[in-house]
Structure prediction request, 502 residues.
Amino acid sequence: MFGSLDYLVIVSYLAVVCAAGFWLGRKEKDTSDFFLGGRQMPWGAVMFSILATEMSALTFISVPGLSFKGNFVYLQFAIGSLLGRILIALFFLPAFYRGKVTTVYEYLQQRFGNRSRDTGAIFFFATRLLGSGVRLCVTAKALEVVSGLTYLQAICVVAVLAVAYTSFGGIKAVIWTDVVQFAVFMGGAGLALYFVIRMIPGGLEGAYSVLRGAVDAAKQPAHKLRVCDFTISFTKQSVFFAAVLNSCFQTFAALGTDQDLAQRMLTCKSVSRSKKSLVLTGIAKFPIDALFLLLGAALFALNVHSGFADKVKDADHVFPTFIVTALPAGIKGLLFAAIFAAAMSSLDSALTALSSSAINDIYRPYVRKTAPEKHYLAVSRICVPIFALLLVGIAYLCRGEESVLWLAFKLTGYTYGALLGVFLVGVLTRRGNNLGNIIAMSSSIGVLLTIRRLLPSLNWQFYVIIGTLWTFGLAILFKPSPGSPRQAGTSSPLRNDKTGAA
Prediction:
């Protein structure tokens, strides 16, 4: 399957990544270095790291699968994603930098109290373990096709490699290796598109002709080139208003309340640099998503002529199948390395985020309140392989799903709304307390489960929106408790100050 040149490319890439992780972690002294890079990370590196983590194997494998079997409507989500990032830059980042938090759930403690922080951390653990487990599942499915490894072997290889440098180098290793990994899988995707176009009779013009004239099984126009779907529907996930609105809320919640992605933004020197890195990622998503969608569409056109994917039942396997059967030596190895890059760029960040929350939101306040920084750093490193084992288990349980891109979004729909709602209460109002937040967040899960039972055809994309509105609306009914941080004179989250204004 692979030649000696392919193996050389793969081994060289993995060696560089692991060596970089160990090199960057050689001077780690405390948890501030391990989790925040001493708040000295360049905004450009942070930007590429956010992109690398967001894209992951879901983008590299599943997005081409979407346009292979469908069209370009996935690009609609980039519009709402940019809007969500702008809202985070306006409202959340100034509050986080004012509070000098290590995890975003520490902001909930500063604003409301310990119980709100604990509830937010619990929701994060549930969200991140399930979401990252699904991402690891996608990678394993691709590696199973490309490498000849079994599904379980593929999961374990990725996990071991990510643990190797993450447990030693912390967030600095994650960010800088993400920069390398972003370059690898973007370069790999570009090369793959080049080779696909070359193999299609007529090149670009031939591909366009096939896509324009494509028909579905009923001999009706397949609309392979459609970008926007302006039909009105509460059941379809690809209509414009639903895609933009939901992706706005989804991004607002994911990057603003999920420690996995928010942690990266807390490593910049200032709030202005953090904002710059975040908003630019939203702009960059348009060409990035377009590249992977074009790749899937080109694979469709190639399949019309060659039939290379006629026997592939799972759209997630189309691109890996092309890599194995059509690419030359060396390029095949580079694309295999790109899949590894996509996998590790999402897994390493999840491991540091889960560990940071475990230490700062659970271990430090409840298990051992006073200890030397070396102790907390050692425990942080121990947490990394523990969470890796949990993610391996979840990924193994998800192996039966045919297409897991939408599954990853659906899993977060039940928790992101609750998290976003309570954070919005914190930054937009002077209301809310621990009891009200716990009631609002917990009940939102029950509300969504009830809606799913009563309205099973409702588009799952609306779950985050419904959860956010329910949590926010219920939580603001509760007045601040006497003696709470807000009552005790904590500065208003809406106040302008030297670190930035909401």
Notes: The chain has one domain: 4-475. The chain has 18 helices and no strands. The two ends are 55 Å apart (CA to CA). The domain at 4-475 is CATH 1.20.1730.10 (Sodium/glucose cotransporter).
